[in-house]
Amino acid sequence: MPISLGELATRFGCDLDGDPDIEVRMVASLLDASPVSISFLTNSAWKDRLFSTKAAAVVLRASDAADCPVASLISDDPYANYARMAALLHPSPAPVPGVHASAVIDASATVAPSAQIEAQVFIGERAIIGENAYVGPGCVVGSDCSIGDDTRLHANVTILRQVSIGMRCIFHPGAVVGADGFGNAMTPDGWVKVPQLGGVRIGNDVEIGANTTIDCGTLGDTIVEDGVRIDNLCQIGHNALIGAHTAMAGSTSIAGSSIIGKRCMFAGHSGAVGHVSICDNVIVSAQGMITKDITEAGVYASSFPAEKVQEWNRKVARFRRIGVLIERVSKLEKGD
Amino acid sequence: MPISLGELATRFGCDLDGDPDIEVRMVASLLDASPVSISFLTNSAWKDRLFSTKAAAVVLRASDAADCPVASLISDDPYANYARMAALLHPSPAPVPGVHASAVIDASATVAPSAQIEAQVFIGERAIIGENAYVGPGCVVGSDCSIGDDTRLHANVTILRQVSIGMRCIFHPGAVVGADGFGNAMTPDGWVKVPQLGGVRIGNDVEIGANTTIDCGTLGDTIVEDGVRIDNLCQIGHNALIGAHTAMAGSTSIAGSSIIGKRCMFAGHSGAVGHVSICDNVIVSAQGMITKDITEAGVYASSFPAEKVQEWNRKVARFRRIGVLIERVSKLEKGD
Amino acid sequence: MPISLGELATRFGCDLDGDPDIEVRMVASLLDASPVSISFLTNSAWKDRLFSTKAAAVVLRASDAADCPVASLISDDPYANYARMAALLHPSPAPVPGVHASAVIDASATVAPSAQIEAQVFIGERAIIGENAYVGPGCVVGSDCSIGDDTRLHANVTILRQVSIGMRCIFHPGAVVGADGFGNAMTPDGWVKVPQLGGVRIGNDVEIGANTTIDCGTLGDTIVEDGVRIDNLCQIGHNALIGAHTAMAGSTSIAGSSIIGKRCMFAGHSGAVGHVSICDNVIVSAQGMITKDITEAGVYASSFPAEKVQEWNRKVARFRRIGVLIERVSKLEKGD
Prior knowledge:
The structure is a homotrimer of 336-residue chains. Chain A is α/β, with parallel strands linked by helices and 336 residues long. The first copy, chain A, has an 11-stranded parallel β-sheet with strand order 8-11-14-17-20-25-28-31-34-37-39, with no helix packed on it. The first copy, chain A, has a 10-stranded parallel β-sheet with strand order 9-12-15-18-21-26-29-32-35-38, with no helix packed on it. In chain A, strands 10-13-16-19-24-27-30-33-36 form a 9-stranded parallel β-sheet, with no helix packed on it. The longest helix of chain A is centred in the first third of the chain and has 12 residues, at 78-89. Chains A and B meet through strand 22, strand 23, strand 38, strand 39 and helix 5 of A and helix 4, strand 40, helix 5 and helix 6 of B. Strand 40 of chain A pairs antiparallel with strand 39 of chain C, so a sheet runs across the interface.
């Protein structure tokens, strides 16, 4: 579906410097773009790519427009505007209403007529699938789960039990929501399992990555608020609360009962131990580990960048003898 | 199924301070409990919640009983006793014997008559499913695997090949047991795969978390002993041995051929490199990394707690110049 | 299928010290081997196991041959030669051509006649399955994906969309390839999803571990070159490039747009942040985190080995006061 630059400018509130009647059909990188593509520039470091682009138009900041050899769609936030234009030009496929013959749906479940249920799906007792929802091949939606309108479960997702999911969410393959939290009581005879009786409540516009796991609550629910973005292979423990619009990159792990504020960002391999509370607008850098409450917004870190192993090992060895160094300084101070 | 406080006290060996004829139906947190619920108090820090609870009774230590406004079930180990009461009041659903029509079961497999095989299951050659076992929707039990009596595989679990699982185990969705270990021999032409020919042996009363992976042995078996608890997204390498009643929290990774003792505890994001041996009763803190044999029980650590990035970066910069500091001290010592 | 030591020696270019007519049927460890087994010795530290082995023959280096009580298959690279012999004696099962009745295959897909499609499989629009390929139970191969000749997808693998996979690859259960990368633009109203429009290209002879995730590119493709070996629970972000014959152990995480050279090795729980470039032949140790470009081959590290928590905490406390120590030294230098 081609769309004119004029219409893009109007729809997304950009200033157009160029011919409004040029039509585009797709997005592409500056280097790969053809005359039916729009592209974007968010980082002036890539300006050399701008000079040679063959795009029909580039979404960029006013300060970069003078350097643009083609039409400019000028925006204060070119990345977000590019994202919105890309979504318009490359929409997710609309669900094809209906239930595949191989899907198994419990008689007590409710599937909206406009929803698409793919092959090999299982939908359990009292589950509810909303309007225009898509349940991909191999997915399992267990008993007492509800999937909101316009939500997509890609293939092989497991929504286990007592999970409520809002509207317009996206779950990537292999994600597991509602499995038992990790609750065990030690006894002289070994662990006694603490029954995990709560559920999971997920808001609207949430995206959950491939093979990420979100456990049910022990008593009460694990909660993921509106607009949260969680990448692949992350773990959210029982009774955690992830505040609205917080984002977590790959392999982040939030232990049980921790409360994460709104608009936080966790970089890859980071995490929080259990029972901590983190305020809004906290950023945790890669491999950073939060071990106690955080009450002040800002960036937090606890990891070292890799360096050559010989140099690193030398530093580690010195670190291990830091007590001796302190003693040597104390001795000097005493004038011995 | 209501049960009286008197019967709970008798069955679990608690002292009851209250009316033995009061009946309860469920467990709940101190804050949410209603007069048909029991609750528990394990940490005196939450005593203010005790004062206002509406529970029928609270499981707690003798030292907290005087502060309890409702009936007390007094126990030396309230958490374990609460867990046992919760399991009694909220039992896991019993399997409904039978094989779903959509399940595919190899003719050479054996399924006990009391087992439940759910929709979209695949059971391979010579596999054995025990009495009262539950195999959830989308699970795969491959050739030469055996699932013990009363064991539950939640949805989309993969038990691949040559895996023996004991009784009363629980496997959460997406868990993978018996995939090839990571064995490769480097040659000038690239890696040559080392065939992974062993299996996996898992004891009784083991619980394995969602999307956790346990590889088969190269030669011989990977072993998980009785009572082990492994959380989500953990990795157990080929030929590892996990001792009885050891627990591992989310994203723990144990590399190949490592031997972990009994009753060890690994916190989140921790791990052990390959070919190490860890004795019984070792605790590894979050992000801790075991790199060599441990022969003494205790707590081991190797990670830093996160702090504000400006302060952290300053410390890292100083750490990097620690060699210079040592030289300055040496110079002072020499009286230069 | 028994094979003689003479034939093994000829086929794999070993020197045989022993009776060429002895036949073997299997591989085994030195300790478990029987007279119909071959075993191997790669590490002289295990030489005591050599002395007592009951194997028919042992693959080993010339320098160890004198100590071998049974026949020797002498090789400069006994581990790789053992691996090749093991593959000959224990071949992967050949696919049984055909499509299981429960599999669902889109009419526009192409499945080679020699391929095996197992139970509960879903194959989407325009997908292509090559000759002798094996698609295990519960796998999903989505639209516009192609699976090369002789490639095996074990159970419950998800190849989502626009993924091209070469020949002779192995994908372990739960692996997810082609899910959306983690691309979001922050706005005052929350995150706007950046459409992920690229695909994934995977070369020949690649092995991908259980529950590992490889995201599609944002624009352009994520690329995994020939011979790469990725272990379980690893994450490869959008538009990353993993160079030929690179190996990554469990729980490694490579963030988006990073370029990893050829023949690199990442140990467990290691990773690279986004947008870095790493040259060939780089080794990253366990929990090592690459934060900037690496242009020189070698070993890189950034993690500490665990030690007793009391000692560790003391070091951490001293590290936190390193600024004070520096001031004390400066004061001494000034002669105050």
